[in-house]
Amino acid sequence: PELWPPELVWSDGMYYFIFQEEDCIGLRCTTEEGHMVPCASGWTPCGAMDGEVIINACRDVGGIAYAYHVEAVDELRFVRTVDPSLANTVVAETDPTSVAVAWTGSDYGICWCSEGKPWFGMVDPGGRLLGANIVAYEGTDECAGCYTAWAGAEFGLVWFGRGLDGIYRVYAARIRPGGS
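Above: the chain's sequence. Below: its structure in token form.
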């Protein structure tokens, strides 16, 4: 398979390293000595990992949360390592070119590029979608490298795209929980 760059996240005194590993998404944690070992808890998906896997992770209470897409399956999925029963929430049926996830302290914002546009959706800790996914900006026909961060009252999104005028730019948007 093609390999997507790995993610490294710090949460509750431990580093979490998440990456594509054969037909699975690999998850490793650091020991106090700095060694990478399989995490004591945490679920990672396996199977149907043909082609490129796109992963992005963020800090969570007691672990990490991550969103991922597998090229062979047109679904953007969300996982929390602290509760394997919530594995594989389908956020959107899409084929994104990038994905990013951020934690508010209570919920998760996820952005992705698909169909030439930046998209945004929210998931609660139980894996339920919070409202409808929205297009964050209609003025592009290409989108790449969507990233998001929580700023205390709103999410910031940034992405690289080609505007409807054909010029490539870096774009940014602010989105409040609920999609406004």
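The chain has a mean pLDDT of 80.
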